[in-house]
């Protein structure tokens, strides 16, 4: 409930502070006194966009602060979802700076307007004649029925499963689109994959093939050079091996004379061992080296295939071709297995659809069960509000389409007069009748759920006498389970309040400002008497005011 409201530097308000109680609070005042200013300030707390023109003094900032007792509203989860600090006594503050910028705070934590609106909807319901347009909204009509049907948990489950169902449908559509594109590419991908598979590519193979190609292409020249090397090493007169052996023999004779000669001997012997090994390798190479035109042709063909594949796929190394081959294998495999994947997805969708159908049927059954109860209660309340012949026809049919709140198609028809034709609410009811219907609905809802603070903004316009008295009774009954604030011009309703405030204008230093005062019992008598008979109060008006208050 709203426990206090402070407004500074807003429109015609300098500095106003008011404390509210639970039960029914009444706000009265002459036309133009500033009741709409109060609601405008409160709307800023609920997330309405700020306007620099609202500042009374454009050199100072405007501050509006409201304190709420939310301990019985179960809002902790909502506060957490909006990243706000939760407190049982919650303070919401809105500031409009002279620059035109605005800031909002919930328990001193900065919040954006969207979060403020979401939280505000759970705290205050400002109901005016304009809001009766909600009555013709199919969404609002469902909300009313679902509250009475206690469908909240079912609807949450349905929404969650519907989200999963829509996600599955999207996945199926993407798979089918992918399949359509993949089929077009499938044959080409298989062709490319076969090419790469037949090439039997191995990492490092290109370098080995290029080396083998060089050898086979120059076999005669290599043979000639190997032969010359063989002669240089093994010639009987001047061969390197003969000369090294002679050199070794010389140092063998010298090594006993000095350690430095022994060192030279060891080094020459090492050279001789190394050259012997080189000679053996050259000898082996000469024996194994043979011209092989067939192998050369095979090597050239393999190199040509690899180079063609590299050019086709715009790469420069075999590992890149191997990666392309692996990717093609994945694509071909996915395409070939896609039909099975799609079928599995369809089965999953059908299962989820069955679960949704079951939930939708439960929601539908609960709605149809309570519709007669809702009609009976509405017609009873409207009968007391001067609409004794008001009748409703509410038809709820289970359809084929999934909506966010089930599969029902809802039709609410209304007739205000005996023997009159049933028609849509917007066509069958006048503005005043719609206001009374909305009051009846809010009255019914207050029996089933914990509603936020409700502010009735002159919804009694156009009614008087006994009907206004009944409207006041309904508000008073609602105030037993919730906080109700009524802005009214009718003395019959004003007299019902537990607390009475008066909005008035006053001039201070030739500047007009709006103020609010809480009336005591005697002041209420005067205010109600003036509402009955004007500024010049008659004794009968005063007596009537006392009678209404008693």
From TrEMBL:
Nucleus among keywords? no
Residue ranges constituting the RecF/RecN/SMC N-terminal domain according to the UniProt record: 2-507
Tagged with keyword Protease? no
Q: What highest taxon heads this organism's lineage?
A: Bacteria
| Keywords (A to Z) from UniProt | ATP-binding, Coiled coil, DNA damage, DNA repair, Nucleotide-binding
Q: Which InterPro entries does the annotation name?
A: DNA_recomb/repair_RecN (IPR004604), P-loop_NTPase (IPR027417), RecF/RecN/SMC_N (IPR003395)
* Coiled-coil zones: 148-264
**What family is this protein classified in?**
Belongs to the RecN family.
Role: May be involved in recombinational repair of damaged DNA.
Record's protein name: DNA repair protein RecN
């Amino acid at each position: 409930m709203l426990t206090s409201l402070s407004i500074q530097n807003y429109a015609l308000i300098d500095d106003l502070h008011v404390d509210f109680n639970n039960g029914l609070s009444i706000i009265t005042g002459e036309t133009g006194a500033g009741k709409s200013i109060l609601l405008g300030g409160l709307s800023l707390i609920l997330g309405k966009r700020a306007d620099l023109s609202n500042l009374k003094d454009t050199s100072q900032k405007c501050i509006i602060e409201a304190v709420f007792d939310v301990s019985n509203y179960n809002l902790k989860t909502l506060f957490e979802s909006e990243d706000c600090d939760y407190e049982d006594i919650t303070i919401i503050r809105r500031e409009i700076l002279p620059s035109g910028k605005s800031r909002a705070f919930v328990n001193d934590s900065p919040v954006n307007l969207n979060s403020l609106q979401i939280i505000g909807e759970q705290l205050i319901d400002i109901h005016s004649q304009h809001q009766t347009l909600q009555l013709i909204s199919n969404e609002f009509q469902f909300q009313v029925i679902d509250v009475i049907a206690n469908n909240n948990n079912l609807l949450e489950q349905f929404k969650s499963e519907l989200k999963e169902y829509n996600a599955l449908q999207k996945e199926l559509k993407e798979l089918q689109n992918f399949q359509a594109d993949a089929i077009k590419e499938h044959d080409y991908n298989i062709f490319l994959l076969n090419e790469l598979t037949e090439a039997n590519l191995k990492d490092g193979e290109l370098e080995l093939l290029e080396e083998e190609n060089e050898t086979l292409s120059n076999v005669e020249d290599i043979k000639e050079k190997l032969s010359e090397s063989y002669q240089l090493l093994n010639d009987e007169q001047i061969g390197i091996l003969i000369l090294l052996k002679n050199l070794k023999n010389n140092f063998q004779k010298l090594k006993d004379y000095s350690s430095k000669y022994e060192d030279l001997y060891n080094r020459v012997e090492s050279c001789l061992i190394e050259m012997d090994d080189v000679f053996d390798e050259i000898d082996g190479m000469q024996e194994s080296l043979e011209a092989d035109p067939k192998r050369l042709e095979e090597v050239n063909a393999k190199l040509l295939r690899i180079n063609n594949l590299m050019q086709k796929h715009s790469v420069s190394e075999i590992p890149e071709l191997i990666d392309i081959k692996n990717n093609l294998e994945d694509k071909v495999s996915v395409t070939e297995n896609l039909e099975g994947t799609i079928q599995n997805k369809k089965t999953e969708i059908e299962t989820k659809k069955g679960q949704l159908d079951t939930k939708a049927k439960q929601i539908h059954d609960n709605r149809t069960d309570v519709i007669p109860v809702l009609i009976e209660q509405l017609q009873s309340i409207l009968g007391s509000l001067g609409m004794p012949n008001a009748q409703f026809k509410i038809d709820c049919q289970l359809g084929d389409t999934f909506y966010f709140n089930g599969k029902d198609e809802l039709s609410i028809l209304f007739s205000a007069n005996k023997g009159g034709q049933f028609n849509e609410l917007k066509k069958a009811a006048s503005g005043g009748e719609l206001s009374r219907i909305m009051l009846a609905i809010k009255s019914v809802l207050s029996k089933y759920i914990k509603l936020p603070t409700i502010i009735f903004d002159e919804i009694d316009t156009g009614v008087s006498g006994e009907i206004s008295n009944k409207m006041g009774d309904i508000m008073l009954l609602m105030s037993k389970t919730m906080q109700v604030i009524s802005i009214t011009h009718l003395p019959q309703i004003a007299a019902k309040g537990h607390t009475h405030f008066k909005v008035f204008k006053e001039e201070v230093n030739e500047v007009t400002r709006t103020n609010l005062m809480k009336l005591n019992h005697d002041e209420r008598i005067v205010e109600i008497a003036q509402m009955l008979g004007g500024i010049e109060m008659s004794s009968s008006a005063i007596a009537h005011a006392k009678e209404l208050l008693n």
